[in-house]
Write a structure and sequence with these properties.
The protein is an alpha/beta fold and 152 residues long. Helix content is 33%, strand content 26%. The protein has helices spanning 12-22, 60-66, 69-81, 94-104, 115-122; strands at residues 5-9, 27-33, 45-50, 54-59, 87-90, 111-113, 134-137, 144-147. The strands form two sheets. It has a six-stranded mixed beta sheet with strand order 1-4-3-2-5-6. Strand 3 (45-50) and strand 4 (54-59) form a beta hairpin. Helix 1 packs parallel to helix 3.
């Protein structure tokens, strides 16, 4: 098993350095975490993992306590999350998208929501008439990603 590097991002300087590194990637995985798992709870963490096993932990809660969470989005996080070039893998991104937009005026772009692929892989829809091509649209409808040859 390969080593995983964890980078804690807690201020503007570390946010700027981390987002500069992440922008060089082709694809990342993104997870948003909140203590309160309802629509009302504030965002606490954003985890962004790269293909070289680096996980950036953006501590939004600490930055919010310092009064710099909005700056962190302005100086880099928004560029990453709204990038049309950088592909973002997420699992069921609806609530994350809602929270990012409401709290930080950030729209997710070029997201591949892998929840449907998980459902197909588990065989839950085996008895249903599911096409072998799955299309997912960007949250504003500008981008479409097509997957083919999904085992069903």
């Amino acid at each position: 098993m390969e080593d995983i590097t964890i980078v804690w991002v807690y201020d503007i300087e570390t946010a700027d350095a981390a987002t500069t590194e992440i922008q060089n990637e082709r694809r990342v995985s993104v997870i948003c975490q909140k203590h309160n798992l309802t629509r009302r709870g504030p965002l606490d963490f954003i985890f962004i993992a790269t293909e070289d096993n680096t996980v950036y932990v953006f501590d939004i809660e600490i930055m919010r306590d310092k009064g710099i969470d909005r700056e962190a989005f302005y100086y880099g996080l928004r560029r990453i999350l709204e990038s049309r070039r950088l592909e973002k893998l997420m699992f069921n991104c609806r609530q994350d998208s809602d929270t990012l937009h409401k709290e930080h005026d950030t729209w997710l772009e070029n997201v591949v929501d892998i929840q449907l692929l998980d459902v197909l892989q588990r065989g839950i829809w085996r008895d249903m008439d599911v096409h072998k091509t799955v299309r997912t649209e960007g949250l504003r409808g500008e981008h479409t990603r097509t997957f083919t040859s999904i085992p069903v």
